[in-house]
Amino acid sequence: MLKRRHYHIDDIESCVLCTSQEEETIDHLIFSCQFSQHCWAKIGISYNTNTSRIEATIRAKVNYSGRLFFEIFTIAAWNIWQERNNYIFNKINPTHNSWLERTKADLNWLRYRVSIDLSDYITSLVNNH
Ligand SMILES: [Zn+2]
């Protein structure tokens, strides 16, 4: 964002979720980063990073076997971002376990916004991960 607004930045900000030294773009951070790829795999979402973000998301939805794809997708992505922020602002190292616990906690909140059968579905999803 800073670069887009033409602030002068000396060094490329590299991703804090992995050791690749890759520039921290949204595409890297949320989708192609090794850390994030592992998160997606953990919840059964396969993300093809060789295509556009929209195309990859559509394909991921088609290939996803569960329900509530976009809700789960959004919560998972949000918590990858939270892991990153927790490191940047609190110097807490990102872990897949803390990502999973946050994601499960947010999924639990989602139970209050959906029908009873979806609520039950979320409960079993959370208990099985
Ligand atoms: Zn990375």
From TrEMBL:
Domain of life of the native organism: Eukaryota
Boundaries of every Reverse transcriptase zinc-binding domain copy: 2-40
Protein name, UniProt field: Reverse transcriptase zinc-binding domain-containing protein
The organism's taxonomic lineage, starting at the top: Eukaryota, Viridiplantae, Streptophyta, Embryophyta, Tracheophyta
